[in-house]
Known about the structure:
Layout: E1 8-12, H1 14-23, H2 30-39, E2 44-48, H3 58-67, E3 72-76, H4 80-89, E4 93-96, H5 116-128, E5 132-137, H6 141-149, E6 154-158, H7 160-167, H8 171-190, E7 194-198, H9 206-210, E8 215-220, H10 222-231, H11 233-250
Parallel strand pairs: 1-2, 1-8, 2-3, 3-4, 4-5, 5-6, 6-7, 7-8
Helix pairs in contact: 4-5, 6-8, 7-8, 10-11
Amino acid sequence: MRPIGRLRLGVNxxxxxxxxxxxxxxxxDPVRAAExxxxxxxxxxxxxxxxxxxxxxxxxxxxxxxxxxxxxxxEMAATSEMQRIALRHRPHAVCIxxxxxxxxxxxxxxxxxxxxxxxxDFISPLAGAGCxxxxxxxxxxxxxxxxxxxxxxxxxxxxxxxxxxxxxxxxDDAKDELxxxxxxxxxxxxxxxxxxxxxxxxxxxxxSVAAFPEVMELxxxxxxxxxxxxLGLAEAIHEMRRLMDEARSSGAGP
Length: 254
């Protein structure tokens, strides 16, 4: 299959807020990071408002909604509090993710198949308010199919297992995980879902996923914020954009 449209890059700014919160200061400012990302060619901004507010705050979301001209993708857990916040702000997109207070980062995809009825009821008012609802899932067919059944517009495939295997030198496992991602993206597209992907992507791993013709958006944050320490945020984004475009035009990863 030929690539379907331009591959979008969503830049996650959560860990700018992590650095800010380490000192309890007003800087570095996530909104400033979003503005730099926009100037550097990002297509959207992602921010995860966690229940424990460990990085992004309610005020950050308010300021992003007030100042951004790029679409905001609000990541959040499926709780009544987060639903109220999303309905108040009505961001362009809402991505429902699993969340545990003890985790360092999102550890896997949402188990949609276990909570189909609840999640269908949860996302209905969000979609009715004009938000594009995305469900963050592992690359498993039953989760993709469940996301389709509950009425999600988008699935975001969790790329963490692939990236971890590659980084740890488990290349056979990485190949298997990449095949799972490839199969899941094709299935989601066949079902009429828009396909996004993200979590743990780096310069070394992005091209293989970016080459999938069904994937329309990659959301990348932690790696870009880390590279920004050495390169600057704009340059880090430019390089990621270059690798994504290169993979997309060639139709094959490294």
